[in-house]
UniProtKB/TrEMBL annotation:
Gene3D superfamilies attached to this UniProt entry: Hypothetical protein, similar to alpha- acetolactate decarboxylase, domain 2
Name this polypeptide is given: PPC domain-containing DNA-binding protein
Keywords: DNA-binding
Matches recorded under PANTHER family: DNA-BINDING PROTEIN, PROTEIN, PUTATIVE-RELATED
InterPro entries hit by this protein: DNA_bp_PD1, PPC_dom
Sequence ranges assigned to domain PPC in this UniProt record: 4-140
Protein's UniProt keywords contain DNA-binding: yes
Length: 140
């Protein structure tokens, strides 16, 4: 991963083999980004997506071992009470048949390149666990 900071924005280029979610978390930790949001495009493979079942209160996950183009990547970054960054993102992916697959992105390996624009909001956005759903949401 390579990046350049422009004012409060980060222009990020991930390269083949990078783990998208882990790299964003790593950047936020090293650059002390405590709250922000991002968008991106590119290509992934070895993807793990999730859909949250609100009745069972668990993520249903599915692994995809194929190549995809990212048609939309959106997410935010906050901090857990222990100070660790928490990346929450959703992705829409297109396959070779021009079919779309989407969901919460748990894992994805960059297969060609990924380009992301990340905005550092300059202050901490704390995420705390919701007692009912057991998910970490922004604490405002």
């Amino acid at each position: 991963m390579k990046f350049r900071k422009i004012n409060s924005d980060y222009v990020i280029k991930m390269e083949k083999g990078d783990d998208l979610v882990k790299e964003i978390a790593k950047l936020c930790k090293s650059e002390n980004i405590k709250g922000g949001y991002f968008t991106g495009i590119g290509a992934l493979s070895n993807v793990k997506l999730g859909w949250f079942n609100p009745v069972e209160k668990v993520y249903q996950t599915k692994d995809f071992d194929q190549y995809f183009e990212i048609t939309s990547l959106v997410g935010n970054v906050g901090r857990l009470p222990n100070g660790d960054p928490l990346v929450h993102n959703h992705v829409t992916l297109s396959d070779s048949n021009f079919s779309v697959t989407a969901g919460h992105l748990f894992e994805g390996k960059v297969s060609l390149a990924v380009e992301i624009f990340l905005r550092d909001l300059g202050e901490e956005l704390e995420k705390a666990q919701d007692p009912e759903l057991h998910l970490n949401f922004l604490k405002l």
